[in-house]
Amino acid sequence: MGSGVELPSGRPSGLVGRQVAHYRIDAEIGRGGMAVVYRAMDLRLGRTVALKLLAPELARNDTFRKRFAHESRVAAAIDHPNIVPVFEAGETDGLLYIAMRYVPGQDLRALLDRTGPLPVATAVRIAVQVASALDAAHAHELVHRDVKPGNVLVAEGTDSDRPEHVYLTDFGLTKKSLSLTGFTSVGQFVGTLDYVAPEQISGRPVDGRCDVYSLGCVVYETLAGAPPFRRDDDMALLWAHQYDPPPPLSDVRAGLPSGVDAVLAKALAKAPEHRFDSCMGFVTELRRAAKGRAGGPDREGTGGPDRPPEDHLDFPPPPAGPPPPPPAPPLWALPVFRGTGTAA
Ligand SMILES: Nc1ncnc2c1ncn2[C@@H]1O[C@H](COP(=O)(O)OP(=O)(O)OP(=O)(O)O)[C@@H](O)[C@H]1O
Ligand SMILES: [Mg+2]
C-alpha cells in the first residue's frame, strides 16, 4: 500500500508509505480519541519508532500545547525501564507529533478484552511495573493523569521470572483536564472516564495520588474483568467516582485472598489523603495481601516455582508479510498530504 490508492469516497487510503517530518510511515498501530499511532521508520537513524500524530484541535489549544511541550520534555528526561522512551516531540504541518520507542506486543486494554480477568500473580506483576513507572514520574513532579489500560503496553518479558515487560506511555497527553463534561468544545469525546480520580472531576489540585486512584481502578479491572464503577451515562459515572463506595472486589471475583479488598478500598479512597502515599506503597500491600489465604476455591499464588499453569500470557506473533490495507486517515491528518499529490 502507500501508493496513493483512492477509496471510493475519494479519500486517500492512508498515510502508510508517506513521510511525515523525517519518518516514513509503515503501518497504523492503533488510534484513540485524540491521536493515531503508527509504526514508522526514523529515516535519519534507521530505526523503527512508534509515531503518534495528535489531532490539530489539540495543537490549537494553548493550554494543551504548553503542557505537551513541557511534559514531553519531562517525560523524555525520565529514564526508567517501565516508561516508554520518548525520542522526539515536534510539529509539522500544524500537527503535533511524538516519536517514541516502538513496543511490540499489545496494550492492557486489548489484553483484557481478549483474555478477561488475569491470574492474581500476573495482575500483581503488571501493577508493580506500572507503579514503579508512576513513582519515578512523581519523583520528577510529573503526574500522569490518564492511567488506564490503553496506556499500559505489555511486551514479552525476558524469562519465566519476568514473563511480561510493561511500559507506561502518554504522560501529560490527556484532554481530561481541558474538559471533563464528556466532550470538548468541538464535540470530540475526551475518552474513558472509568479511571478518573474524584479530585480531577471536581477540579481540585491533583498530585501523584490521583494516579494511585487510577492505578487502583486499573488493578481492580485486571482482577475483576471490569472497572469498579459502571454506569449508563457519564454523569452517573462521575458521580459514582466522587460519592459511591466501590463494590468490594470479592463480590465480583470469588477466591481472592481476604486482604485484597481492604487494599483496593484504600487505593480507591475518595480523599487523596486517605489513599496510599505512593503507587509502590499500594502494590507492595497488594502483593502482600495476594499472598494471604484465599477465601474460596480458585486459590492462586503470586508466582515463583509453583506458579499456576494458566499464569502466562500469549503474545501474538509479530506482524508477518505485508500489513493489511490501512483504514482511511482521519480528516484532520490530511494536511500532511499537501505537496505529496494525493491530498483530496
Ligand atoms: N510506543 C508504542 N508502541 C507500540 N504501540 C503503541 C505505542 N504507543 C501506543 N501504541 C498503541 O496505539 C494505541 C493507540 O494509542 P492512543 O494513545 O492514541 O490511544 P488510547 O491510549 O487507547 O486512547 P486515548 O485517545 O484515550 O489516549 C494504543 O492503545 C497502543 O496499542
Ligand atoms: Mg494512549
From TrEMBL:
Is Secreted given among the entry's keywords? no
GO molecular function annotations of the record: ATP binding; protein serine/threonine kinase activity
The organism's place on the tree of life at top rank: Bacteria
Q: What residues bind ATP, as annotated?
A: K52
Task: Return the broad EC class.
Answer: transferase
Protein name (Swiss-Prot/TrEMBL): non-specific serine/threonine protein kinase
The ranges of region (Disordered) come to 290-344
- Bias category Pro residues: which stretches? 315-332
Q: Which SMART domains match?
A: S_TKc
Q: Entry's SUPFAM superfamilies?
A: Protein kinase-like (PK-like)
| Residue stretches making up the Protein kinase domain | 23-287
